[in-house]
Amino acid sequence: MFGDLFEEDYSSVSNNHCGKGKKLKSKALEPPAPREFTNLSGIRNQGGTCYLNSLLQTLHFTPEFREALFSLGPEELGFFEDKDKPDAKVRIIPLQLQRLFAQLLLLDQEAASTTDLTDSFGWTSNEEMRQHDVQELNRILFSALETSLVGTSGHDLINRLYHGTIVNQIVCKECKNISEKLEDFLDLTVAVKNVTGLEDALWNMYVEEEVFDYDNLYHCGTCDRLVKAAKSAKLRKLPPFLTVSLLRFNFDFVKCERYKETSCYTFPLRINLKPFCEQSELGDLDYIYDLFSVIIHKGGCYGGHYHVYIKDVDHLGNWQIQEEKSKPDVNLKDLQNEEEIDDPLMILRAILLQENNLIPVDLLGQKLLKKIGLSWNKKYRKQHGPLRKFLQLHSQIFLLSSDESTVSLLKNHSLQAEFDFQRNDQQIFKMLTSESPGLNNSTSCPHWFDINDSKVQPIREKDIEQQFQGKESAYMLFYRKSKLQRPPEARANPRYGVPCYLLNEMDAANIELQTKRAECDSANNNFEVHLHLGPQYHFFNGALHPLVSQTECVWNLTFDKRKTLGDLRQSIFQLLECWEGDMVLSVAKLVPAGLHIYQTLDGDELTLCETEIADGEDIFVWNGVEVGGVQIPTGIDCEPLLLNILHLDTSSEGEKCQQVIESPHVFPSNAEVGTVLTALAIPAGVIFKNSAECPGEDSWTAIPKEDMKRTFREQGLRNGSSVLIQDPNDDNSLLTKQGKWITSMNEIDWLQVKNLCQLESEEKQVKISATINTVVLDIRIKAIKELKLMKELGDNSCLRPIDRNGKLLCPVPDSYTLKEAELKMGSSLGLCLGKAPTSSQLFIFFAMGSDVQPGTEMEIIVEETISVRDCLKIMLEKSGLLGELWHLRKMDWCYEAGEPLCEEDATLKELMICSGDTLLLIEGKLPPPGFLKVPIWWYQLQAPLGHWESHQDQTNCTPSQDGLWKTPSTQGAPGNVPAEVSLLYLGDVEISEDAVLADLKSQAMTLSTSPEFGVPSPAFLRAWTVENKRPGRLLRTDRQQLKEYKLGRRTEICLEPLEKEENLSPQDVLLRTQMRIPGERAYNLAVDLVWNTTRGWTASSLRQRVADFCCLPVEKIEIAKYFPEKFEWLPISSWNQQITKRKKKKKQENLQGTPYYLKDGDIIGVKNLLVDDDDDFSTIRDDIGKEKQKQLTLGKKKSREALRVQNSDVFSHVETPAQFRGPEASLSIRVGSFR
């Protein structure tokens, strides 16, 4: 019954620098967050359900409604398990409301979900994305509940709580006869315009009389003539709960537009309705009502957002004003004896006494921050150590649990502590336990909360006055009778009135939530480090090596990364009971030469997250100075390199043999190249390095004598590089004997670096000499020096390749060589501000919308393990976009929006997103998996009059003067017909891929109630896909599943109305035939023709079918197919038979192939040769269309030439091809998740 509640539309090049060697953990699906400090649960917004959330929270905080609903058991409502049984009568809406209220009361989650409830309404995701009016929903929901509860003890629930009666009276001035008419109401609708407030509006409605006199007399039935009379209305019966709807939306008949009334409109917190009621014997208290809920609308008349102010009648929530909560309760300057606050023992005892002697240790630290305004680490850690350690040292006072998670005072010390505390520290205790004035009187002070979807915040009662006026103002008011009293056992008791089966269900759900949170907490915060113990290593050949096996020297330790470095050190101390002396922890890494130490971890107060220790990190445990009596070099500068040294063998007599010796040697990266000769005890020699780009090839380059003092890193040598040593006086060159060749200089051995740092320098660009093995860091440092820029740029700059079109590409990591970065000699690089992404980060371009011009993209750097949802949030923040109705698509190879990134919880790495990829921000929320969100268009040859909105995200059509949206391709179409073909946007349908085509048509029929677009049944609709803003492929079979049509996620459907049902077979082809008007270059209206192709797709068969259809001899007609994209006609003749050259045999013609490519929906022009013997099929519009195409092509050519000239001026030093090309993007194949 809720399937169609509302009809209102909702208005509201790839440089792959991925990380190497990083361990990737799949991100677990996190459970919902627990409740915040208010201890109340919000409701998640499904996209446009804020109006529903506000009304549901109001009903939930109406205890009488909630408990009346809970009183209906399964014996009356049915069981959830039976809802799919055909004969079972399960009242699903009340059952879902019961479960939702139970979750709001008892389930420990920040926000509940209404998905099950809206499913019971029969809503689709499309409905949940639309905004609606909460006043309308209030009436419809109550009607649905009344219908659902018929035949149960709760059949009168709505009537009992919300039903009231108004009596309208007309009193004759002559005979005093009274004419009465009763009117029922569930809510009172009151005016806002020209009214100061609620009481003023009620006075106008129920106190003032309307007088009939002069020209406006009343016909009295008793007097049987026109007489003077007075008309009035009174409230006869008042319900326990009074709902007031404010008419804030009006229509301006001058401007012909809707507007929202934002003037000041007051309403009291307590109202006396006695002046507006009939005289009765009721007591005065029966007319007193208290305000308990205010639904607020923020925005205008065409869209906005709802939230609600609610009074917590049963005190279920923790009402504590956030501003006061964040302030410290104790001002240190106000204490008479400041030394007393400096005693942590006294402060902790006071907090534990205040918190009933038991508190989690983490919460104890938070309470301390709240009470004195300083954290434990800032106030006491330096003198007393960590908090847990302090509690352990004072075990005679504090009792820690076995897992050290909670703490309490010892029983024998608690009383003594309290006595001493009151006797000696009375002032401190008074200030620690002091609360704000509102909190001291919390039992009598009204508890008001602002519930905004998922967020719940406490507010003061006076904050309601802020909603009297403005764009954010009150829209619905809910009052309850003051005499309604709640039982004492219901106060602060969320379990009161909840049925046992729901209590058990919520208890089980809470246990499951706790288990999931513990598992998620462990999965997200535990990581593994590999401990290398210093005493089990020795320094040999430039690196550290284990004394025994690698497995015995490495300990794997799983640790909580939220703990501090000091905690890690303490844990290692406990593991290594025999450790003596200082313990230093350093980050190490296994390199080909062995284990090398890079940096020492300092700052025991820092958490492991802050120290940036990665999962699977190697930690070297030592004394910080030496290992086995040898001082250890540390840092990246002296990283050991394993080089292959080639030289001629020397005999015992000192003569050189012809045998080449290749031996590995280890050298520090910062050592001079000349140390190679010293290490091999060679007095002199020429050193060559292998600069071949491909493995297995040799391209030896001699190192000049003046470069012998340069370091290995500066020469571009890395692990595995080969170095050749040759005697300078040896005539028999080793390279000659080996058949190798020497090059002292490559044709291009430089890179161009431009200054793009927005800093002034003498040089705008410099050439940096390099080889393919040169490290990018060295090039960057040289460029900074030669450009004479500040040295500080060395820590905050990066190099970015510049492509042929002048676009800056992804930054290149400093640790890469030119070969690894795939940079060719002679390339152009830009020196830019900002650091390059690390090995675990991605550099991503992104832009908004699908029409992206090159060079307009924005850039971000994110972790490769970030989820699609979090990445989308970052992009929206950087773009300054609001709302949640966005999704991401990856730009494909042709620079267009590709398939969407559907799995919002998947990481970018799992979806194979690489650095340099471009993601597009597309408006609109994605449908759930297995569902399609299909835009529906109305397609007809003659467009009806009416006003329709354009789906501008889907097409770039332009509106005509009559409000229709016509496809641009119709310009220059023949005659009237193609020009009149219009696509009118109806809306979106969200439907399962398993549904059939008939279901899609049925849902589409509900998108518009206009009679001009009405059809008797789905069988009277013809469905087409939309291609190039025109009807494309015909969808024939109504009973075929949508997934069998392979529509895809970007498919749009247009529906064409039919005068009668049709049933096309697979052999039938639907064509649009148009008869040419004799003597004019125009055509008549199109008429559908069905051509059966059982006998083949031949021209003669088609000509015969057209002739029969037009009642003409086949020899007296000519037909041609129209190509609207080219504005051309191609005649179809039966003599177009092709003869192959090889066999000289006639080849069977087929109109499906070249050059006709005939398909459903094609336009066939028909010429009657009896009255028209002209060979021309074209129209005047065709001539205009061709001329426009010619001008458009010429304009694009001029733009490309201008851009080419501009690029040649800017990048004249780079030889670029003349052809303009779009940026490259990686090709990917999307594979579904099997997790």
TrEMBL record:
Matching entries from PROSITE patterns are given as: USP_1 (PS00972), USP_2 (PS00973), USP_3 (PS50235)
GO molecular function annotation: cysteine-type deubiquitinase activity
Q: Could you say which protein family the record assigns here?
A: Belongs to the peptidase C19 family.
PANTHER family tied to this protein: UBIQUITIN CARBOXYL-TERMINAL HYDROLASE, UBIQUITIN CARBOXYL-TERMINAL HYDROLASE 40
Q: Which GO terms describe its cellular component?
A: cytosol; nucleus
Specify the domain of life of the species encoding this protein: Eukaryota
What Enzyme Commission number(s) appear in the record? 3.4.19.12
What's this protein's name?
A: Ubiquitin carboxyl-terminal hydrolase 40
State the top-level EC class.
Answer: hydrolase
Which SUPFAM superfamilies does this one have? Cysteine proteinases
Tell me the keywords, alphabetical order: Hydrolase, Protease, Thiol protease, Ubl conjugation pathway
USP domain spans which residues?
41-482
Provenance organism: Carlito syrichta (Philippine tarsier)
Q: Which InterPro entries is this protein grouped with? A: Papain-like_cys_pep_sf (IPR038765), Peptidase_C19 (IPR050164), Peptidase_C19_UCH (IPR001394), UBL_USP40 (IPR057763), USP (IPR028889), USP_CS (IPR018200)
Quote the catalytic activity from the record: Thiol-dependent hydrolysis of ester, thioester, amide, peptide and isopeptide bonds formed by the C-terminal Gly of ubiquitin (a 76-residue protein attached to proteins as an intracellular targeting signal)
Gene responsible for this protein: USP40
Leader sequence range is none
Biological process, per Gene Ontology: protein deubiquitination; proteolysis
Q: Which Gene3D superfamilies match?
A: Cysteine proteinases
